Hints:
One of its GO terms (molecular function) is catalytic activity. With 137 residues, this protein is of the alpha+beta class. The chain has helices at residues 8-13, 58-79, 123-136, and strands at 21-24, 28-32, 42-46, 84-87, 103-107.
Amino acid sequence: MAYDDQNIFARILRGELPAIKVYEDEQVLAFMDIMPQADGHTLVIPKTPAVTLLDLPADAAAYTIQIVQKVAKAMEKALDAKGIVLMQLNGAAAGQTVPHIHFHLVPGSLHELGRHAVQMGDQEKIQALAEKIKAAL
Length: 137
Ligand code: 5GP
């Protein structure tokens, strides 16, 4: 699928829009979801421009999942998360709303998640949760 370099996550990656970051290296960025489905909802994105997992080169996918695991471990420790939902939507037909591949890490249970990308979270609370996750990385 053609990549739109004006999508929100591309703009966050370029520093044109703010984000509450928890981890960054040359290939990957992890930051807090602005409309969390549970406290601590974090997004992990490869910097490689790709709309869906199907478009992402395998080496970038392999590296990104390592960071997904790293952030999940930090989340478990920092937030005492008993469960972590890993979610990844491919295509608008699947419910994807931002056309840059991303992995959702959501502490809690699939059966108790808030609605997807609907309600803005409290930014101060999100910042505090991010600090906890960062400290556990
Ligand atoms: P998708 O529907 O594409 O799987 O998920 C996109 C996610 O990005 C949603 O959970 C939504 O809350 C989040 N999101 C949308 N716009 C922004 C933004 O500007 N900043 C951040 N941090 N998250 C966003």
